Amino acid sequence: MAGEGDLKLLGMVVSPFVVRVRMALHLKGVSYEYIEQDLLNKGELLLNHRAYVDEALAASSPSILPADPHNRAVARFWAAYVDDKFFPAWIGVMRAETEEDRAKKMSETAAVVEQLEAALAQCSNGKAFFSGESVGYLDIAVGCNLFWLDAMRKMFGVVVIDAARTPGFAAWADRFRESGVGKKVLPDADVAAEYAKKIQAYRAAAAASK
């Protein structure tokens, strides 16, 4: 991989947003030092530094955004949709306190997933990925969430991406997991599940102490 000076990435292995950055760096061929952080007890480096891949590594290649301005705008629109709708939707499923509430959140999430099925059809032009023949910006924006969906399936028995309901999106998810960046960077679902249990215990202890 190409070097970018003394590049350090501060993050937590189970954060989909950190995973997204790691995927971008992998696709751009940039080497870096990864420093795991405990977000419950933030270290000095994390408190004092912030970095943005698009700004800091603008000269690095290959580009992960579409070359065409319109396609680039569409990719950014759907990436924002992922952050504003998809991420909060599955987080709601994760945090549901009752089975009834979880079922309601699953219904809301299913509607969001149907929109991503439509986005895939719009952006891929019938090819393997949102970005075409290979993984790109929008693929990693969506794909960085997949390991948490796998973790929720193990924890609660819920299927967020239903192949019967959204076959195109389900097939894309399988291809993404098997892609080079998916195999290299996506954390194991068991790691996410263990972290979720840790947070649940932390919240329970905090509530009991009040």
UniProtKB/TrEMBL annotation:
The GST C-terminal domain, residue ranges: 68-199
GO biological process entries: glutathione metabolic process
Gene3D superfamilies named in the record: 1.20.1050.10, Glutaredoxin
Group of enzyme by EC: transferase
Keyword annotations of the record: Cytoplasm, Transferase
EC number: 2.5.1.18
Catalysed reactions listed for this entry: RX + glutathione = an S-substituted glutathione + a halide anion + H(+)
Keyword Transferase: yes
A single MF term (Gene Ontology): glutathione transferase activity
Occurrences of domain GST N-terminal (ranges): 5-124
GO cellular component: cytosol
Entry annotated with the keyword Cytoplasm: yes
Localization: Cytoplasm, Cytosol
UniProt record similarity statement: Belongs to the GST superfamily.
Task of the protein: Is involved in the conjugation of reduced glutathione to a wide number of exogenous and endogenous hydrophobic electrophiles.
Name of the protein this chain belongs to: Glutathione S-transferase
Species of provenance: Lolium multiflorum
